[in-house]
Amino acid sequence: MPLAKCLIANRGEIAVRIIRACRELGIRAVAVYSEADANARHVQLADEAYLIGPASPAESYLRIDKLLDTARASGCDCVHPGYGFLSEAEAFAQAVLDAGLTWVGPGPDAIRLMGVKTEARALMQRAGVPLVPGFQSDQAGDAALIAAAESIGFPVMVKAAGGGGGKGIRVVYDPARLPEALASARHEAEHAFGDPRLFLEKYIENARHIEIQILADTYGSTLHLFERECSAQRRHQKIVEESPSPLLTPEQRAGMGEAAVSAARAVGYVNAGTVEFIATPGGEFYFLEMNTRLQVEHPVTEMVTGVDIVKLQFAVAAGEPLPFGQNSITQRGHAIECRIYAEDPRSGFLPAVGRLARFLPPEGPGIRVDSGVQSGDDITIHYDPMIAKIIVYDAARPAAIARMQAALNRTVILGTTTNIAFLRSLLAHPAFLAGQVDTRFVDDNLAALLPDVPPLPDAVLIAAALMDSQAQAGGNGGPPSPAAGSDPWSRADGFRLGAEN
């Protein structure tokens, strides 16, 4: 039965992405928003939008009761969770189904089975999916973990059983540092996930992080859409993603795809998901985890396969079979995604909150921009400070890198500090150009990747002065006037030379 009206239980860029898919499918899109997001882009683009609470996610986007009340009151027949927030919450998926609505994502059982890393490892072992040597036991104390680490051999990785997002992870080279790592990882895991359990894995030196996009329907068809390489990371957080991986041979790519399909079938997976692997420089690979949701970097796969993953999510949720088989999918050209954040790389990548005075994304052939913000929006402390994802496509990797550099160079962002110069420096590094970046490369070479900050060009200073004069004159068609005290250009406190004190 076709779906008619969808509650999008999310915000920002991913909410905008889902709204666009809804429009193409003829599904009415219902947005929710917190008080901080009253004028957000996803609110403006949706067919309907409803306030669900204060700025804090715990009082708005994480409130299952408010989300379901809104879905019922607005007449929705389905819910799409996007990524983040409640997207991998078994309780939310089950509550949606119990309310008689369609959940646009994998079922609660798959979310539960893959949500605890130790249980996922055990299941993958039974399914014959390659695993990194490790140790896990819900009953194990520090003494057992320390003994297991000696057996596995250092370096080892301490990981949170219920982890995600790079939290609860410690890499230990020195056995004497293991007790301290166990204590700090356990504390972080309990705070972040409410689950203090830990397990160990052998730390793979010079590892590459490669993930396989999978799709499955309710008719027994499970297939993959090839790989994305996500090795360019800082503190286990992805920065740049690309497809195809410059590491894999065709034989290795096929083997990893088959392993991902086996992993999905082992949990009876339905809808879109991602199976993540750690690969050695020689191409051996091991199961890392399974993400039971849409991924931030899904546009990379869409660019090289021509498949709209979000639209297929809706089709599968509506009970339709996948419209193609594995042999019909091909991987063409090369795609790269860069995440643009309001953050200051020279200050430990701290979020740079404030008003986005001007945002002009790049345009041109082979360039796609997914964003949830626009000029005049505020980057706040309440949510992830991502401004946009820039995705480029070209026939070969060197051309795609050059196109991305040009796209970043044409991106105009005024009013906040961004990581654009850092991204350009990373893309220009010989190791990245050669396709040799591993998961520790950015952290190990951070000082070299931080570019010198040049003086502001005249054009930027002129634009800032014009913005200031427009604000003082009441706008005259310019951007929204900044709130009092939020814009340094409008403060008479000596911020500008010659300003009145």
Descriptive overview:
By secondary structure, this protein is an alpha+beta fold. The chain has 5 domains: 5-104, Rossmann fold; 133-202, Dna Ligase, domain 1, CATH 3.30.1490; 204-332, ATP-grasp fold, B domain (D-amino Acid Aminotransferase, Chain A, domain 1, 2-Layer Sandwich); 339-454, ATP-grasp fold, B domain (D-amino Acid Aminotransferase, Chain A, domain 1, 2-Layer Sandwich), CATH 3.30.470; 458-490, no CATH class. It has helices at residues 12-25, 41-45, 64-73, 90-98, 108-115, 117-126, 142-152, 178-193, 250-266, 298-305, 309-317, 397-409, 420-428, 430-433, 441-444, 446-449, 458-472; strands at residues 5-8, 28-34, 48-53, 78-80, 102-103, 134-135, 156-160, 169-172, 198-202, 208-216, 222-234, 237-243, 271-279, 285-291, 334-341, 343-344, 350-351, 354-355, 358-360, 367-371, 378-379, 386-394, 412-414. Strand 7 (156-160) and strand 8 form a beta hairpin. The longest helix is centred in the middle third of the chain and has 17 residues, at 250-266. Mean pLDDT is 90; it is low at 475-501.
- Please give the order of strands in the largest beta sheet: 14-13-10-11-12-15-22-20
* Rg: 23 Å
> What is the CATH topology assignment of the largest domain?
D-amino Acid Aminotransferase, Chain A, domain 1
Query: Tell me about the biggest sheet?
Result: 8 strands, antiparallel
Shape: globular
Compute the number of strand runs: 23
CATH superfamily of the largest domain: ATP-grasp fold, B domain
Q: What is the CA-CA span between the terminal residues?
A: 66 Å
CATH class of the largest domain: Alpha Beta
* Proportion of strand residues: 15-25%
Low-confidence stretches: 475-501
The assigned CATH architecture of the largest domain is: 2-Layer Sandwich
Class from secondary-structure proportions: alpha+beta
The total number of structural domains is 5
User: If helices are DSSP runs of H or I spanning 4 or more residues, what is the number of helices?
Assistant: 17
Mean pLDDT: 90
Determine the fraction of residues in helical runs and give it as a percent range: 25-40%
